[in-house]
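hiii so um. not sure if this is the right channel but i have a protein structure encoded as C-alpha cells and i wanna go backwards to a sequence. like what aa goes where. can anyone help
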C-alpha cells in the first residue's frame, strides 16, 4: 500500500431481526447498498470529502459518521502512520430500517482492509463496526453490521464474546423489502420497547428462532413461515409504520411465507418461496402504500451471499 492508492467498494443493505431474532438475526440483500471511494493520504486521520445522496443529513464530522468512526478504529488498531479520505454515496436513507449506517461502516472498513492487503479478518474488524453503530444510533448492535460484512444470513449467537454463525439458506428463498417514505430513527424505535418481556413471550420467541434456523437448514419453507413471528419488537414498533398490518396482510395473502419489520423500520420485509411469488408480494405491498399516498421503493432479491465487494472505477 502506498500514498495515493485508491479503491471503490460496495456494501449491501440488510434486514435485521427477521421477525423472531431481535438483535441476533440478520441477512444481506442485493440492493440497495452504499458505495465508497477511499484514497490513502500521508496525513494521519480520516477525512470526509463528500457524501452524496443523504440530503445533507449525515454528519460530516469524521468523529460522528459511522463509516469514518469504523475506519479510524481500524487505523488505530494497526498503528497506521498514514490516513485516508473518503467519498460516500448513499443509496438508502438513514432511518430506513435497511442498515444504512451499517452499510457505510462496512464499506469503510472493507475498503481500508483491501488497501492494507487484508491485514485483518472479518471477525477482527467486527468490533470496529459495532462501535460505529454505537456512534450512529446509540446502541452497540451487531445484526446489521455482521450481515453486511459477512454476507448471507447470520446469527449473533453471543455478543460477549462475539460469536457469529452463518446460516445456509435454501435455494428458492427470496426476499421482498419495501421502504416507505417515512423516517424511523433506531434510537427512538429502541426507546419505545419495554425493558422486560413476559416469560411466555421469551419462550415463544426462542422457540421461533429455533424453528427458523431448522427451517432454513432443512429448506422447510412451511416451518420458516410458521417461525416468522415477533413477540418483542413488532407489537410496539408497528404503530410507527403507517399501514404496517395492511402491508403484512397483503404480503401473506399474496403467498409470502411471513412478513415483519426490517430492522427498526419503517421498511417491511417478506420472505417468499420463488421469484414469481416475491414479485406478486412486492406489488401487493406497494399497492397498500399507493392507497395511503405514501411513496415507497421495493427491492426484491435472494439473500446476498457475498457481502461487500470491490467495484471498478468509472473514470
Ligand atoms: N436490531 C436493531 C433494532 C436493528 O431492531 O433496533 C436496528 O436497525
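sure thing!! here u go:
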Amino acid at each position: 500500500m502506498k500514498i495515493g492508492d485508491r479503491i471503490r467498494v460496495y456494501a449491501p443493505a440488510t434486514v435485521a431481526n427477521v421477525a423472531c431474532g431481535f438483535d441476533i438475526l440478520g441477512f444481506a440483500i442485493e440492493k440497495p447498498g452504499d458505495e465508497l471511494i477511499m484514497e490513502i493520504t500521508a496525513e494521519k486521520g480520516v477525512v470526509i470529502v463528500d457524501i452524496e445522496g443523504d440530503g445533507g443529513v449525515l454528519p460530516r464530522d469524521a468523529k460522528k459518521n459511522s463509516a469514518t468512526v469504523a475506519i479510524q478504529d481500524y487505523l488505530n488498531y494497526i498503528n497506521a502512520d498514514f490516513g485516508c479520505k473518503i467519498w460516500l454515496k448513499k443509496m438508502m436513507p438513514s432511518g430506513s430500517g435497511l442498515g444504512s449506517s451499517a452499510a457505510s461502516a462496512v464499506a469503510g472498513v472493507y475498503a481500508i482492509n483491501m488497501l492494507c492487503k487484508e491485514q485483518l479478518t472479518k471477525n477482527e474488524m467486527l468490533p470496529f463496526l459495532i462501535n460505529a453503530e454505537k456512534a450512529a444510533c446509540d446502541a452497540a448492535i451487531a445484526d446489521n453490521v455482521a450481515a453486511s460484512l459477512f454476507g448471507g444470513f447470520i446469527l449473533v449467537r453471543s455478543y460477549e464474546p462475539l460469536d457469529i454463525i452463518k446460516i445456509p439458506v435454501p435455494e428458492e428463498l427470496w426476499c421482498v423489502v419495501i421502504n416507505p417514505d417515512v423516517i424511523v430513527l433506531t434510537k427512538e424505535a429502541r426507546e419505545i420497547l419495554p425493558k422486560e418481556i413476559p416469560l411466555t413471550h421469551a419462550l415463544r420467541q426462542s422457540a421461533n428462532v429455533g424453528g427458523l434456523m431448522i427451517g432454513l437448514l432443512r429448506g422447510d419453507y412451511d416451518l420458516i413461515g410458521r417461525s416468522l413471528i415477533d413477540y418483542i419488537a413488532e407489537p410496539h414498533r408497528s404503530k410507527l409504520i403507517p399501514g404496517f398490518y395492511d402491508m403484512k396482510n397483503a404480503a401473506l395473502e399474496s403467498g409470502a411465507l411471513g412478513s415483519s419489520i426490517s430492522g427498526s423500520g419503517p421498511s417491511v420485509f417478506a420472505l417468499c418461496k420463488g421469484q414469481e411469488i416475491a414479485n406478486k408480494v412486492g406489488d401487493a405491498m406497494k399497492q397498500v402504500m399507493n392507497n395511503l399516498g405514501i411513496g415507497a421503493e421495493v427491492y426484491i432479491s435472494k439473500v446476498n451471499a457475498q457481502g461487500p465487494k470491490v467495484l471498478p472505477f468509472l473514470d
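oh and The chain has ten helices and eleven strands.
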